[in-house]
Amino acid sequence: MPMSGTQPSLYQQLRGHLAALKLTAAAEHLPSVLAQAEAEQWSMTATLEHLLAREVEATEARKLAGRLRFASLPTPATLAGFDFDAAPGIDRKLLDELATCRYLESATNVLLIGPPGVGKTHLAVGLGRAAAEAGYRTYFTTAADLAARCHRAAIEGRWATTMRFFAGPTLLVIDELGYLPLPGEAASALFQVVSQRYLKTSIVLTTNRGVAGWGEVLGDTTVAAAMLDRLLHRSVVFNLDGESYRLRDHHAKNDALRQTATGTRRPLQ
Ligand code: ADP
Ligand code: MG
């Protein structure tokens, strides 16, 4: 019996070591692992492996939670939750390839272009989540937030630090370019962020404006062209169009209501 003679104090010492090394999961699982080891007559190697595996699992889970917290994803959207039947323009194979996160190794950018409600943010969040889950440092922001942060940083003398911050993540998601105009300083900030990441780390960018409209958004066609050059050089572009998923849902509900109310359907368009 392991718990007889000098064993209890040895056991206490072992628990003490695990606690001192901050191996809390291993310490927590020590009694059950020892009991199972005895019941199933595990070798010492197998016993140690089981014990430390609990600690590794806990560490991985903690790191993942930290990465997800840092990523600041605005919704729980996932790639698995994306309905391809509702988005016929989307190349499923290509998206499956992106879901492997291999594109991050070649610093490839992803551009999601399309009108409101077609799933751009959903896919951007899904890609961000996949990256964080695969172990990549990921950060989600909107173009307007990025510009506002850089503006504050410039005023407070933290420009360099902020630029380093936006250079850091392996994946930077920039949502909603084009909803608000970003002229002057805002466009320069965005350009600098894109430039310093160019060929080093990936950007997933969503926009409601076709690339031809970027000059207007950034208030400067030269900056827009230079930025597009860098973004598109190594990139995957999705043009999403079709009916807004939000409105689709809305239409479907209206249809259902109308059907129950009158027994008729909305005519097919
Ligand atoms: P966008 O960013 O293009 O304006 P969103 O990604 O915010 O659109 O999509 C609007 C809503 O519809 C979100 O709740 C999103 O999860 C959902 N949605 C859009 N397209 C799809 C889709 N193909 N499958 C599942 N949900 C979708
Ligand atoms: Mg959006």
TrEMBL record:
CDD domains: AAA. SUPFAM superfamilies: P-loop containing nucleoside triphosphate hydrolases. It holds the Pfam family IstB_IS21. SMART domains: AAA. It comes from the Bacteria. Residues 106-238 form the AAA+ ATPase domain. One of its GO terms (molecular function) is ATP binding. GO terms for biological process: DNA replication. Keywords: ATP-binding, Nucleotide-binding. Belongs to the IS21/IS1162 putative ATP-binding protein family. This is AAA family ATPase. It comes from Nocardioides immobilis.
